[in-house]
Design a protein that fits this description.
6 helices; transmembrane; transmembrane helix; globular; mainly alpha
Length: 180
Amino acid sequence: MIRPWNLSLCFVAASLPMLGAALVVLEMSLGLLAMLALVALIRLAWLDDNIVNDLLESERLPTAYINTMRRRQIWAWRLFGVASDRDPADVSPSLLATRLKAEAQCISTVLLTGAALVGAVLLPGLVGGVFFALMFWAAWQQMDRLAVTLVVLEYGAALPRERLLWRPAWVGSWLPRDDG
């Protein structure tokens, strides 16, 4: 059972990417922001590719993921003195996919918040206000999804397949459907 304190911490942790993005965007130059956004978009695509192509259909964790997790455990021990008693080979692919989805949602929240603030500052008057409202609403929704994912991870469970593959309806609306 999850404790109420941990539940509230999940919601606070989900709001931190918005706060951090807002503070960083207001202090950085646009060129540096553009470079960071490009790197974040590449990481976002990479995470999504890992979830869809490597983890969803597999029964066991691929060897490359196990080795990476072992290296992270070694570095966590060396740098922070944190020892893990879990064997990476015991982690289910769906649980790792849920962790990667949480990271992707965090990056999306940061990117949408940054886009909202940059648009509000650079675009003129009403256009900037409308752009800010739309982007902030999208970031808020992404933050809400991140909070739900963190709660699911706190339970030690994995998101269902539909939630891992979820996309807004308009994203692939132009693609032909194969209903046959």
